[in-house]
Automatic annotation (TrEMBL):
Originating species: Handroanthus impetiginosus
Descriptive protein name: Acireductone dioxygenase
Pathway linked to the protein: Amino-acid biosynthesis; L-methionine biosynthesis via salvage pathway; L-methionine from S-methyl-5-thio-alpha-D-ribose 1-phosphate: step 5/6
GO cellular-component term (any): cytoplasm
The family this protein is said to belong to: Belongs to the acireductone dioxygenase (ARD) family.
Location within or outside the cell: Cell membrane; Cytoplasm; Nucleus
Length: 200
């Protein structure tokens, strides 16, 4: 008898729609009742994810294959905590400003945890909680932000195709080709809401 394999990404990646309270950004911000978001839904927005063996990232064949398949030649680490991140307070503030990049944002959580928030088709925030072992790819042009959770620590591997460009473009930057391409690829599909600023 065949059986459908359980998607074990859920052990290290969970996503849900956020409430609109102004409380501490590091809290979960679940709606009441909770509204979880499926991996299929994230896929529709172009957000990819894997669960990997974070204790063995140096020799992990699964990570090697993803890097080869997707051309992720560059790799470094970013540790977010006051002791390790220069200009910690400023960086934390900037990470949580809604922004986009002109390339994919690829982060592999090898320790700790944190939240990547992305905009849905109708502009609602989806909160993606990544824990040790979660690799996520945010597509170029998606509006997003990052915050630590209440554990206050993450160590993320950063991957990139070629020489890295980390520039954040705070919203609105709808005129950028990367944004237009994202809207065309993921937001303008039949049945999807539009997410273009009125001023664009
Ligand atoms: C956990 S890596 C720090 C966050 C970051 O690099 C970024 O660009 C957030 O959008
Ligand atoms: Fe970013």
């Amino acid at each position: 008898m065949g059986s459908i394999a359980k998607d074990d990404r859920a052990e290290v990646i969970q996503a849900w729609y956020m409430d609109d309270s102004d409380e501490d950004q590091r809290l979960p911000h679940h709606r009441d009742p909770k509204e979880f978001v499926s991996f299929e839904k994230l896929d529709e927005l172009g957000v990819l994810s894997w669960r990997l063996d974070a204790d063995n990232y140096e020799t992990d064949p699964a990570l090697k294959k993803i890097r080869e398949d997707r051309g992720y030649t560059y790799m470094d680490f970013c540790e977010v905590c006051p002791e390790k991140l220069p200009n910690y307070e400023e960086k934390i503030k900037n990470f949580y400003e809604e922004h986009l990049h002109t390339d994919e944002e690829i982060r592999y959580c090898v320790a700790g945890s944190g939240y990547f928030d992305v905009r849905d088709h109708d502009e609602s925030w989806i909160r993606i909680w990544v824990k040790k072992g979660a690799l996520i790819v945010l597509p170029a042009g998606i509006y997003h932000r990052f915050t630590l959770d209440t554990n206050n620590y993450i160590k993320a591997m950063r991957l990139f195709v070629g020489e890295p460009v980390w520039t954040p473009y705070n919203r609105p930057h709808d005129h950028l080709p990367a944004r237009k391409q994202y809207v065309e690829n993921f937001l303008e599909k039949e049945g999807a809401g539009r997410a273009v600023d009125a001023a664009a």
